[in-house]
Specification:
Blueprint: E1 13-16, E2 24-27, H1 29-33, H2 35-48, E3 56-60, H3 63-74, E4 78-82, E5 92-98, E6 103-109, E7 118-126, H4 130-141, E8 145-154, H5 160-163, E9 169-174
Helix pairs in contact: 2-3
The chain binds adenosine monophosphate.
Length: 175
């Protein structure tokens, strides 16, 4: 059984109406700044996927980079960034996905994940699941296989997990 991660919630603060009115932003900066909470978070994600064979850990811009890189290091896997448009310098594959209002796009370097590579996706927050599902789509578009998704926390009321039902989606906390 996974160790109890509920204490991590004490290191996450709600910022009301950020970045826009109506959003309760989960600020994980205090967690990242606390050595025990940061190490526990990385170790707990690693522990869940320790028996999965992982070639690459993908971090989703931007806080997914902070958690994904140490997870990759500990799993002896490479790290691959998935970024917003125009940020990656080399040739990219891209995937456009629907938001509540409009669309957004994510990009990955075309040579970052090869056919059949086994990929773990990491991000800080699972909200509606749109970003995570788009990242799954991007990995599959370049021929990779998603072995799972690891999150620090999920916002249970938004049911993002339902979009990821076909995958091993693991979060340490549900708020
Ligand atoms: P979604 O696509 O709705 O699941 O949103 C997930 C992405 O948006 C993640 O990269 C999160 O970092 C960010 N995000 C969404 N909602 C929040 C929130 N309430 N607080 C902090 N980050 C959020």
């Amino acid at each position: 059984m996974s160790p109890d991660a509920s204490w991590l919630a004490d290191h996450i603060r709600d910022i009301p109406d950020f970045p826009q009115p109506g959003i309760a932003y989960k600020d994980i900066a205090p967690l990242l700044a606390d050595v025990d909470a940061f190490r526990f978070t990385v170790d707990a994600i690693v522990d869940h996927f320790a028996t999965s064979e992982v070639d690459h850990v993908i971090g989703i811009e931007a806080r997914g980079f902070i958690l994904g890189a140490p997870v990759a290091y500990r799993l002896a896997a490479g790290f691959v960034p998935v970024r917003k448009p125009g940020k990656l310098p080399f040739d990219t594959a891209e995937l456009e996905y629907e938001l509540e209002y409009g669309t957004d796009t994510l990009e990955i370097h075309v040579d970052a994940v090869g056919p059949g590579d086994r990929v773990l996706i990491v991000d800080d927050v699972l909200a509606t699941g749109g970003t995570a599902l788009a990242t799954v789509g991007l990995v599959e578009k370049v021929g990779g296989k998603v072995v799972g998704l690891g999150f620090l926390l999920e916002l249970g009321s938004l049911a993002g997990r339902e979009k990821l039902a076909a995958y091993d989606a693991h979060s340490l906390l549900t708020l």
